[in-house]
Every structure is written in C-alpha cells, then in structure tokens.
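Q: Sequence in, structure out?
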Amino acid sequence: MLLRNVFLVRAFCVWTFLVPAIVWGQADWSQFRGSAGDGQTTLSLPLSWDQETNVTWKTPVAGQGWSSPSLYGGTLFFTAAVPQGEGDKVDYDLQLLGVSAKTGEVSFQTNLFKQLGASAPRIHSKNSHASPTPLISSGRVYVHFGHMGTACLDLDGKVIWKNNELNYRPVHGNGGSPVLVDDHLIFSCDGAKDPFVIALHRDTGKVVWKFDRQSDAKKKFSFTTPAVIEVEGQKQIVSPGSNVVCGLDPKTGEEIWRVRYEGYSVIPKPVFGDGMIFICTGYDRPTLMAIRMGGKGDVTDTHVEWVEDKAVPHTPCLLLIDSALYMVSDRGIASCLKAKTGEVVWRERVGGAYSSSPIASNGRIYLQSEAGETHVLKVGEEYKVLSTHSLGERTLASYAAGDGAIFLRTADHLYRIEDK
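A: Exactly. Output:
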C-alpha cells in the first residue's frame, strides 16, 4: 500500500508539472506567425465579432506601429513608435509594451531607441517605425527595430542588452521579424545596398556570423522573416531576398543552396512541408515557387517543382494545411492550391485590400482586411465563407491567438476577442 501511494503521489506530481507546460504551449503565440511559426493553432477561436459582440476588452494603443502582438505567460508584447511632438520630421521613442492578456491593462512601457525625425529614412505609407514582431523565449523578449537596433528584455520590460551597431539604410522602413535557432537570434537586413543576414548571440547581442547576400537585383531591399526548417536531420534558415532565396546553416551562416528568380521588396515568410519550401517573390509581379529540399549550391534548374503567377500575395504570408496551400492576394483574391503540384483547387474574390497574414484554427481560415473586415473561410476543397464581420478600424497587423481568443491590433486599439 505504501509503495502504491508513493507511486500515485509521484504520478500526480509529474502530471501537475506537465499540465501547465501543455496548456501554456497551446496558449502562447510567442513570435510572428505563432509559436510554431506557421500561422496555425489548435485552439478554438470565435467565429464572429463586432464592436458590440465578443469583445472582452479594448485598450487604446500608444503611438504607432504594425508589429503583431505576441503572447507569452499571460502577457501581450508589442512595439510602438511614440511621436515626441507633431510634424513630418518628429522624433519617435521606440518602445516595447506589455499588456495583460486577461484585462488589457498596460503593465509596462519601455523606451529602447530613439528615431530622430531629422535624419530618419522615409517609410512607406503602409509601414511604421515599429513593424517587426517581438519574439519571446525562455523568459526573455527579443525586440527588433531593423536598422535602429535590436534588444533583449526580461518579462517585466527591463533591458538585458541592446545592439544598435548594425549600419544599413532601409528602403520604405523595416519589416522582417527575427527568429531564434538554438543560441542564435537571426534576421534579414535587406536595405538599399549590400543586403545581409545576421545572427546575434541570444545572451549578449554580439554578432556571431554575417552572411552577405549575393544578388544581381537592381533593387536590393526586402522585408522577409526567415523560416526555420529541418532537412535530413539538419536545421536550416530559409531567407528570401531580392532576386534570390538562400538556405543557410544557422550555426555558421554558410550558404547551403540558392534559387534565383526576379523580384524585390519580398515580404511573405516562407512555409515548409511535404519536403518543399514555398516562397513568394515580391514585386513587380509576384510568383509562388515550390522548391524541393535536399539540394546543394545553385538549384534553380533542378529543384523548382512548380511556379504559380496568378493572385499571388505581395504582402500576406501563406498557410499550408493538410498538403494544401491557402493564400490571399493584396487585392483580395483567395486561393487554394495543391502543395505537391500547384494545381488550383479554387480561386475566389473575397474583396478588400490585404496586408496582414491569415491564420488557421480548427478547419477555419481567418482573413483580416486593411479596413478591419474579417472573412472566415472553411478549410477544404470547396470555397465557403463561414462569416464576415468588421470592427471598422484600419489594421495592417496580423493576428495573435491564444487562450481561446484572438488578439487584434488596429491603428488605435488592441482587442481581445472571444466567444462570450
């Protein structure tokens, strides 16, 4: 009996230790495109909402910014550029904010860098000075403002390190978010010239390696977030830029493979599945490329499985669900393609303009337009709109999801939306 009771106590302790880890693993949305980096969650999310329905709280957002909120341990983290005055050449305080996911109350607001209006490069009308999304791992928050600097903070908003030594001139502002691979914080720096990918040590912010992207593009600038994948047991970083996508060794920054194309100002983050990486090639006319993994060197002529050039997004990321690719173009055309062949399953006009990236949950795809209108589509071989609704506020930020809720940032507010 004693042994049996000891076993039960131990089993209970193990179970109570594991349950919070499982719950938080499902509830968190700790980086751009979610904790898995693919825009998907298994949590049940609301089907419809408006200003009067299923809004748990609505918090005014200080300053400006299109970074998506990240969720970790019950706190939402996002960045903002807070103007210090008025006018075209105003200075901005670049900040990280923490907001309670339960109540919407602001818990901290930390100044990190200052964007001087007199010398700041111009940004695109759809961009902001705070567009990259924070990344949270092991109790630390990694915040990136492109050429203005990168920082690491604790969960209470206290600075651990800052690095503002990476000098390059952006075009239209900054956009790509960082990813974390083991001890390396990795992001792309594709500015007006001499584009590169860089890794900082997660504990110190010091440069570990720098990869100089070789591209023949006349316009060098791009804004992508790298994808972290695993090929034959080895991790890779896939980083698209102008006219070329590169597969890199995350430990050293050495190039493993590359594929050439024509395109610049590349924005969508790649997705990986079925042994292929799927990328979009940017402006002027974007194409969707499926690249088979396993190659070395320049594999343009040997590993491109298929290419699609109709209704491909310039800005929103792709979704890969059950060997089907789902996407929405900037001009509001939604498509479903078979991932293995590129065959179009359906293509329909949803309407509106799109910059934020779609997310998927339990057989549903959520599309958020720039005007604040949401279309919820059914996953599958038949095009079906499950609901359409609007908050009536402009938004270019992508969703965060967790704890049974959608967290949505508009130009003026942060929302918690859930079934009530």
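The mean pLDDT is 93.
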